[in-house]
Design goal:
The chain contains four helices and five strands; from the N terminus they run βαββαββαα. About 40% of the residues lie in helices and about 30% in strands.
Length: about 140
C-alpha cells in the first residue's frame, strides 16, 4: 500500500464549542501521531469541516470510512477528492488546524478545481499562507 490522501467536507449537527473543538483536535493529534497520518482541518463557526488526510491508503480509508463517517456529531459528508499521491502536502502537521469563515470555504469550493492537486494547492495556500512549499 502506498501514500494516499482524502479530502472531505461535512457539517456538524451542532456547532462545536471551543472546549469541544479542542477535545476533538487532541483526539485527532493522538490518533494521527500513532498512525502516521498528516493533514489539515478547517472549521467554520457555523459547524462546517473541511479536512485533508494523508498517510498509508489502508489507514486513511479506515479513518475516514470507518471512523469519521460513523461519527454521529456530523452529517452531509462529501468526499471532494481521494487517491494516491507521491508525497504529503502537510507533512509537518499531524493535524494542522485553522478556523475559517463560512464564506472562506464557499470561495475555496465555489469553482472547485477539477483535479486533486489543484484543490490541495488551494487548501495549502489557505491553511498556511506564506509557508507554502512546492509539495505537488
Amino acid at each position: 500500500m502506498g501514500l494516499y490522501h482524502l479530502i472531505y467536507q461535512s457539517q456538524s449537527l451542532v456547532p462545536f464549542s471551543r472546549p469541544e473543538l479542542l477535545a476533538l483536535l487532541r483526539q485527532c493529534w493522538t490518533y494521527n501521531r500513532l498512525h502516521h497520518v498528516t493533514g489539515v482541518l478547517l472549521y467554520t463557526p457555523d459547524g462546517r469541516f473541511l479536512q485533508v488526510l494523508e498517510g498509508e491508503e489502508s489507514v486513511v480509508t479506515h479513518l475516514y470510512y470507518d471512523r469519521i463517517v460513523a461519527d454521529p456529531r456530523h452529517h452531509q459528508g462529501e468526499v471532494l477528492g481521494e487517491g494516491p499521491c507521491q508525497q504529503r502536502s502537510f507533512a509537518r502537521w499531524t493535524m494542522g488546524f485553522r478556523t475559517a469563515q463560512a464564506h472562506d470555504l464557499r470561495e475555496l469550493l465555489a469553482d472547485r478545481p477539477s483535479t486533486r492537486p489543484e484543490l490541495l494547492e488551494m487548501l495549502l495556500e489557505f491553511a498556511a499562507p506564506g509557508q507554502r512549499k512546492d509539495y505537488l
